Structures are given as structure tokens and as C-alpha cells.
Records
---
Amino acid sequence: MNGTESGTGGGAVADPVGADRLVGVVGAGTMGVGVAQCLAEAGHRVVVVDPSEEARSKGPRRLNDGLRTARLLRTRTKGAAPASPAASAPAPGKGPAADVAARISWVPHLSGLDGASFVIECGPERIPVKEAVFKELDAVCPADAVFASCTSAIPVAQLAAYTQRPDRVIGTHFMNPAYLKDAVEVIRGPRTASSTLDATLALLATMGKRGHVVRDAPGFVSNRILMPVVNDAAALLQAGTSDAGTVDKIFEECFGHAMGPLRTADLIGLDTVLDSLHVLLETTGDPRFEPCDLLVDLVRRGECGRKSGQGFYSYTSHGAHGAHGAYESHGSYESYGSRR
Ligand SMILES: NC(=O)c1ccc[n+]([C@@H]2O[C@H](COP(=O)([O-])OP(=O)(O)OC[C@H]3O[C@@H](n4cnc5c(N)ncnc54)[C@H](O)[C@@H]3O)[C@@H](O)[C@H]2O)c1
């Protein structure tokens, strides 16, 4: 078992990774498509639910972009062996892309998850939206299904309280792009059962991913630290202390981070960053999570980062879907501050 242990035991959870189990993904946005890709590459049947027709129609194309990018980068960097693939499942990155795509269906209503044994919720980072989704999932899905959320900041206990199965609710904070990351921050709520945690880690292992387990708190470990850093970096731009490129280079070339905070924020999506700061402010009351004006202004203008082609940087080759296209060519930008 990785990381921090907490919580109590609980009822047995049906094996979510056995043959012919169906995994649901809620939301066909940046994270939902990436998570669906990882699941389907591991051999699972996946149903993705999104009420937006646009998101559903773009989903398969973005999935293909992701498959192409993942195969390219995995081949270049490390090969594709998973930590512990599901029995009879192809290893991530293997098997024809068409076979992977054929394992995924795209539907508009949560009722499409009535046969799911495990659901990964990747809807918007807004508490009222997640509340409505979890309540409906609870009514629709089998009683023993596990609900995992990809939330960036909302405490698992809060999401669990929207259901009659708090022992089967857990946080799985995948990072973007999900198909290129080896690990997931796993959040165990105060009532999450050991069997739910075990089932979650087993499902992640089929995708070749390790889970790093932490206790429940607003923003968990990752975003409790990252979001104020992004906010402070944006405030420094606002004050004219530096341009975005220099801020990021200080983190990348002086500290040795793979990606500076502003480039990271553009990759996450500035709208999602703003929503996460609002959740952190609301759940902690700590004023350091008050979003700076520049961040609010950029989102108001629709400059949400890679996915919109413009954020702290301008992306000149973001292709069919910003995150995927830009990922391959993330040298082609000019930065905020240097262009204004
Ligand atoms: N973007 C990141 O880097 C990142 C990383 C980790 C976690 N997260 C978290 O993952 C979640 C999704 O983020 P994202 O960046 O993919 O957002 P996104 O805006 O790209 O996608 C959200 C999707 O949810 C859909 N949606 C809206 N209402 C819905 C509903 N009622 N039911 C089902 N789908 C609905 C939208 O149509 C959209 O396609 C958020 O909680 C976010 O905080 C994001």
C-alpha cells in the first residue's frame, strides 16, 4: 500500500477490473477523454457521459490525437509496459488504435452508466455540478459500484455526502495528460472503505499507474500547494515584476522543474485553475486562494490556456485539440508580459 493509511474497513466491493466489467467516465473534457483513453488501452469497456453534444462529437477525434501522441512519446521515452495489466487486456499503448476506440461509447445521459461497476467523475470543478452528478449516479448505478472523482480540490467527504454509499467514494486525481502520467494522487475520504481503496489501486494498476494515497483535505497535497503558486505567479505578472517566460524559466532552469507554474496552468486550463481557487477559497476560507485579477480577466476573455490557443502563452500550433497538439510542439509560443 502506498502513502498514508486512514479510514475504516467496509463492505466488499465487487472486483471492478475483472473481465466484462464496465467503467463509466463522467465528462468528455480534457481529463475525461484522457482517462477514458487509459481505461480503454488497458482493455476495459468504457462509457463516457457528457450532456454537451459538442464535447461528445469532438471526443473520438481528441481520443485519436491522444492515442497518437501517447504512442509517439512512449516509443521515444520508455516503452509501454504497465505495472500490472488486467488479465487478457492489451498493455497500454499496444493494440490497434481502432480497437481501443471501439471499446468506448459516448452517451448524453448518466442513465447510460446503469451497468457500471466503477465510475470516474471528470465533470467541471463546480460544487453544484458535482453534487447533481453524484446524486444521480447514486440513483442510477449498481449499489456496489465505486465512485471516484478527478476533482482538483473538492474534499472527498463532501462528494461522498451526496450519496448513500460514502464508503464507496474516493478521489483519483489524475494529472494532465492522463495517458502520459505514471501516477495518480489517490484521496481516501474519512469514510472510504479499505476495499474501495484496494479496488481503486487495482484499477489504476491495470492502466500502468501507481496511486499515491493521501488523506482528505481541500486541494489534497497537489493543488493545496500548486494553486497558490500559480496564483502568486500570475500576481507577479500583474505587478510587472516579470514576464511569463522568465517566471517559468526560473522554475525550469534554476529549480530544475519540468514545467514552470504558468506553463502548467495553461496546460491545466485557466478556467479550471480559477474554479479550483474558488473551491479552495470556499472550503478553507483562506484569503491566499483569492484569485488575482489577471487570472480572472484572462478567463473572462476566454483565454483559458492551451485548450483555447491563448493563455499565459500564445499557442501557434495547437491543432485539433489544444492540449494534445500543443503538447507535441510546446516550444512555439510567446509569453504574457513579453507581448504586452
Ligand atoms: N485540466 C486538468 O489539468 C485537470 C487535472 C486534474 C484534475 N482536473 C479536474 O478534472 C475535472 C475535469 O476537468 P477538465 O479539465 O477535464 O474540464 P473540462 O472543462 O475540459 O471538461 C469538463 C466536461 O464536463 C462536461 N460536463 C458539464 N456538465 C456535466 C454533467 N452534468 N455531466 C457530465 N459532464 C458534464 C462538459 O461538457 C465538459 O466536456 C475537474 O474536476 C478538474 O478540476 C483537471
---
Amino acid sequence: MATLWNSWQRLTRDAVNFVYPRSCVRCDTPLSESDAGFASNDEAFVSRFCRDCHRMLCCSIALPCLRCGAPVGPHLNTENGCRHCRRDQFQFDRVFALGIYEDALRACCLRVKQGSGGPLTAGLTDLLWTAYREEWSGLGIDLVVPIPHSWFQRAARRHLPPVTMSHVLARRLKVPQELHILSKPRHTPAQTSLTPAGRRTNLRNAFRIDGGARLDGLTILLTDDILTTGTTADRATRVLKDAGAKRIHVVVIARGVGQSSRR
Ligand SMILES: [Zn+2]
Ligand SMILES: [Zn+2]
């Protein structure tokens, strides 16, 4: 009974915290009034993190590849990609990431998939928005679309990070979102369970546009929690572009590079 009561208290606190954060969504430290909004001059912005967590999690990729979002060295022209993506035929235009999938951000990415991961996902998405809002304002974004999940994933998980990210970014950018236009009609094995070659074939024909809708000329922000090989975002991008979308920009919490980020 005590466990049930603790779970209920946790759920209630998370629901309140989602709307009006009273404690840091990462470490539970109570937020003082001076913390609220400290991360931005925008009066509508209320930080969901304490100062220490904010400092640790705010955008940490100083020099991202203009194509895949991976960190690159200075003075490198990445218009045609970097060593992480040059051999891929990615159809998306750019990847925006908060940081590398390691350390504290990796721990956050594991937590956002849990049932209570909504407030943390919203907080991390706010950090993305503060990092890239000026660039995004110049991209002419028309629509926000989350990477879809199969019926099996939707039934098994209480929280889907790409959907929460889409809610937050659509509200911040004041553009519409489409939660159902892109769908995943068949269940596929988790990308983490496959070899790199297996991941590329696993998602072939996995996505589709529902109802034959057209997206002619639209610039779309595609949300997902992690990008590693880029296969998921690329497969979804191809379907969106086949429906007429002009540009697809991918937004992720973390960019996975190297062995520690297999996904
Ligand atoms: Zn904190
Ligand atoms: Zn790259």
C-alpha cells in the first residue's frame, strides 16, 4: 500500500511540476522564486531546472556538424557532412541536439522514456528551444511532427518523449503540430538490439503518411529523443519528403556517437 501511495504522490507531483515547475525536474531540488525564469529574459519562460542542473545540461555542442549534429573540430566545413555522416545519404537537412549522449544527458535520456518522464522531457526541450530559438525563427518552420511509434509501443509505454517534445516546441514556436499524419503501422524490433546493418533494413517501409495527406512545400521540425545512426530520422524524412515536404530539420535531446550510444 505504501508503494502505491508513493507512486500516487510521485504522479501527482509530476503532473503539477509539468504545468508549473516547483522543483527541479532532474534532481528534485525546490526551485526558489529567483530560479524561475533565470535562464531567459522571456517572461513566459519558467526554468524547470535548478541552476546546477541547468548549467550541466544546457546546450553543450559548441561546433556541431551542419548535417548530422555530431561535434566536430574548429575550421571544418561540414556543409557536406562530417566523418560521422559523410557516407550516409541522409535526406534530412540538419540535426539540432542538446548534447552528446553521455554522462548526465545519457542518464536523462534513459529517464525520459519512463512513465514519469514528461516533465523532464519538457524541461530538456525548453533547453533546446533556448539554445536554437534564434536559428529556428529564420527557418520558416511550418509544422512540428514527432517520430511515430507502433501500436505496440504506444500500448506498452506511458510516455512517448517525441510527442512531449512536439507539444513543447509547437507551443514555443507558435506553429501547429501533427501527431498522427506520420504513422508506424508495423512493429519493428528495437534499434538497440540490432547491428548497424540490421538497423538500416529494420525500418524499411516502417513509416507512412496516413490518409495520403500532402505536405507540399512545408518545412517540418521532426522530434525524437536520441539520434545515433540517423536511420530512424532518415526513414521518416524520406516519407515526409515523398508527401511533398520541402525541408526536414530533426530535433533530438542527445546525439549518440561512438560505442556508448548504440541505438
Ligand atoms: Zn537540479
Ligand atoms: Zn555529420
